[in-house]
Design brief:
The chain is an alpha/beta fold and about 325 residues long. It contains 15 helices and 13 strands. Helices cover about 45% and strands about 20% of the residues. The chain has a 7-stranded parallel beta sheet with strand order 3-2-1-4-5-6-11, with helices on both faces. A 3-stranded mixed beta sheet has the order 7-10-12. Strands 8-9-13 form a 3-stranded mixed beta sheet, with helices on one face. Strand 2 (about 35-40), helix 3 and strand 3 (about 55-60) form a beta-alpha-beta unit. The longest helix is centred in the first third of the chain and has 17 residues, at about 90-105.
């Protein structure tokens, strides 16, 4: 029987969980120390089978089924847990899912829970921004984990670089010029960015290897803060032909909501997404926190925005 420590990874076939697994298995030290138990809803799908072929134990669990969570976590030393608000766009459901994971960790006496959290926006802004449910739900799970006295660290991912190509930044339908239009000033470094698939695992591996330093603390996972102007300037540098007339543009709150409607986003989340951007502009994504200590915990080179732009699949044909 293996004497490796069991590391349970939720969202094992997703961006964050998949990055954790890749990072742990890719480092001889952690690959020797940890046995990964990958949690997925469907162990038979190709992505799950691929994990099994890499040496992971693959188990099924449902975040709304406590018994399945207890079974998945039983005997684990550490757990990396992540939930997905955007699957059902329900903050209360996401909160319940996170609390279910916490209960299972408490029952199983897990030695290190790494919760993929975010800041409590309503609390930070003293109620001014009260609709950012995909942040606040995770933060309230963080509060619950703390109340249970579970040994835990709170991984907080920056704004995903993958949100920008094709969705937030795209050709203007009238002029064809690549345009990055949001309801915030273009010259303010409001965006802390992370290449989720490449760098989540670096932070989580660092958290696992520095347990005593990080217990009870928040780790802010980002490479740097960027302005919209800097984001566009890098695009123009990498793709001078496509980016010839690229521009960053500040639009009104109502214009932004109209754009969300055209993009097919439900009206129920329009205000939420607007307030998310207002948070970055008016209060700072992490209240303006410095990233140095968190980056030292990661201990590896992180992907810059320029490096991400150079490899982004949606832009591979641009010149």
């Amino acid at each position: 029987m293996s004497d490796k420590k069991v590391l349970v990874v939720f969202g094992a076939t997703g961006g964050q969980g998949g990055s954790v697994i890749k990072s742990i298995l890719g480092d001889p030290k952690t690959a020797e120390e940890f046995q990964i138990r990958a949690v997925t809803r469907d162990p038979s799908k190709p992505a799950s089978v691929a994990l099994k072929e890499k040496g992971c134990e693959v188990v099924a669990a449902n975040l709304e089924d406590k018994d399945s969570l207890f079974a998945a976590i039983k005997g684990a030393y550490a757990v990396f847990a992540v939930t997905n608000f955007w699957e059902k766009m329900d903050g209360e459901l996401e909160k319940k899912q996170g609390m279910n994971i916490a209960d299972a960790c408490k029952e199983s006496e897990v030695q290190h829970l790494i919760w993929s959290s975010l800041i409590h926006v309503k609390r930070l802004t003293k109620g001014v921004l009260s609709e950012v449910h995909h942040f606040d739900a995770k933060a309230e799970v963080q509060d619950y984990i703390t109340s249970l006295s579970i040994p835990a660290t709170f991984f907080q991912a920056a704004f995903f670089m993958s949100n920008i190509p094709g969705g937030m930044m795209r050709p203007d339908p009238t002029t064809g010029a690549w345009t990055f239009a949001l309801p915030i000033p273009t010259n303010k470094p409001s965006f802390p960015l992370i290449d989720t698939k490449a760098d989540t695992g670096k932070f989580v591996k660092g958290i696992l290897l520095n347990r005593e330093k990080v217990l009870g603390k928040e780790v802010y996972a980002g490479v740097d803060y960027y302005s919209m102007d800097e984001i566009v300037a890098t695009f123009k540098e990498v793709y001078p032909e496509a980016g010839k007339n690229a521009t960053a543009k500040q639009i009104s709150h109502e214009e932004y909501k109209t754009v969300l409607g055209y993009a097919g986003m439900p009206v129920s989340v329009h205000e939420e997404m607007l307030q998310n951007l207002r948070l970055m502009d008016e209060y700072g994504y992490w209240g303006g926190a410095d990233l140095k200590w968190s980056q030292e915990i990661a201990g590896e080179k992180l992907t810059t925005w320029k490096e991400y732009v150079q490899k982004e699949p949606q832009w591979k044909d641009l010149k």
